[in-house]
Amino acid sequence: MPSFIFYLFALVTLGFGLLVVTARNPVTSALSLASSFVGLAALFISLDAYFIGIIQILVYAGAVMVLFLFIIMLMDIKAEEGKKTNNGALVGGCLLAVLLVLQVIMVSGAFHGERTVGDLDTAAAIGKAAGTELPTIANDLREGSLPDTKLMGYALFDRYGFHLQVVGLLLLVGTVGVVMLSKRDTAAKEAGN
Amino acid sequence: MDNPSPYWFLVVFGAVALVFPLIPLGLARLWFLVFSPQKPSKEKNAVYECGLESKGDSWLQMKVHYYLYAIVFLIVDVEAVFLIPFAAAYASLPIGAIVAMLFFVLLVAEGLVWAWGRGFLEWK
Amino acid sequence: MTLVERIDQAPLLLQRWAVSFFPALLQPWVAMLISAAAIIGVFASLFALSTLAERKGLGRIQNRPGPNRVGPFGMLQPLADGIKMLIKEDIVPLRADKVLHFLAPIALIVPSLLVYSVLPIGRNLIAMQCQLGVLLFFAIGASTELSIFMAGWGSHNKYSLLGSIRAIAQMISYELPMVLAAVTVILATSSLDTVNIVEAQAGGFWAWHAFTPWGAIALLTFFICALAESNRAPFDLPEAESELIAGHLTEYSGFKYALFFMAEYLGMMAISGMAITLFLGGWQAPLPILNFIPSWMWFFGKLACFVVLFIWIRGTLPRLRADQLMNLAWKFLLPIALLNIGLAGLWVKSSGWIAWPISVILLGLAIVGLGRLLRGSRPRGGKRIYRYAD
User: Fold this and answer.
1) Residue pLDDT, tens place only, C234-246
2) Burial level of B86, CB count in 10 A (0-12/13-18/19+)?
């Protein structure tokens, strides 16, 4: 059953992914991309990665797709529809795909054996969590559910505090950069009008 | 498969919810095919625009402000996504982690305040 | 099991009884199907009831009787409306993108229904208990934006497209303070599971999150955002009939229009249900003495109060201007929601009494200060300049 569901959602993801590339109308592409994200989220959830799966929908299918749609609305769609395929981009894209496949092969080659929630030594984990300052996490483990959000929060903010600041800085730079760039664009447009 | 994951409910419910609007739509279609007089005309099936004939292309080009709001939304949304695991783990986090989060939120908020101060959040 | 408990758990017992007729292998799946059908049945009937309540209520507010011809006191009006919608001709514009035009109402109604799967409507009465309930609610709710865009784009009408783009801009702006308001509750209960959140508010109304300083502000923020997310007055700019005809609904007729209408009400009730779950104790009774009333009746009673509030606000408040709408979200609600998370954190770590005065002072300062800032940004005097949308 799980393998059947994997192939179903993999097919959904890849099918809509193909449509993203082949559709002439940018809006069709964008909406197919959203559907592809939903398939991807289902794959994550079937792998017990619930938090990532739901974030995939919230951030990608929600926020990023809205951004894409607004960008599409900024363009001249009629001109895009009539455009010829860019050969350079096609070759580059194929090259990138080959590189990605190589990477996947290398990563899966380095991966030995399965480690899922079932393989987790629950008793040891409970003891470890109860011994430190993680009483709520120990409770969840005792109830037989993996508190992935809490563990993620604990790892992110306790162990990787510095990396988090770098991400924050990146977001700040992103805000400033994108606002400056689009401001220049509007200023030029208003001067042109 | 004696104990399916709760997330299966989304799949089942999604399928039921998909059938739910299709039934009345099918019924309406059936009514249309059997009982309604079919009189399509150019005027009736034109897009509605103040009663006059539509001019120009309706796929308009939008202004850049929408894009600006969308990008600021994306950045703050990512911040909110970081906040959620933080909030879930908050009760068992040491003080250092909370200070780290405070810095993170302030960094992102600084971008927002900057954009506000420069007047980029003005709707025109 | 006492009689009171039996009535309280009646829906669950009925479901178990129905499921017991099936072989063991099929039982969980049949249970899911029954839950799905029950949610659709209950909330679709509530939709019919609330349309009637809305028309009657608005009629009273505007000093007219409202629908009173079909059935006693016009009670059968929703049924008549439904039949009318079914036999109206479904006109699809020639220039429209037929596929998107057809898919948009369906793609809107499916997520509007799916969000109900994580709402606990009574003790043990939840379709799908999962650890990430709150997050799942917002994730599914966010995908309705794409459906509205599909409607606007597929209609191939300028007003539809403008309306849908406005709707998306409004929805993303108000989604942020809404999620941040919910984060305060996650912070206080260390759980994203809606059932745990309701159970954390047991004991009486003083244990509800709405009766803490951060909870009160978060509930207000959440409620304002709920109005905006469901495109209800005073935030109904995307459907402003005097400016945009009816926004993305312009080219829809017949039952497709009814589906949009239904999705709006379903969304409104779902967000109200989430507000009840997060801040108003979900299915908990306000006083322990009142526990003999079934838990699901408390939930639906609170939901009815919210729906009446929505109707009342629609009948009372004028529509906002576009710049006021954006300013309210970005320059008022968002900073308040961020500050509020900090105060909730303080509340959790400082065990109550010290946090009260600090919260009241800080929140008061923030609300007054931001309010003044917003007033200052209002264009005052001078000639008003009207511009065409570009």
Assistant:
1) 887 777 666 666 7
2) buried
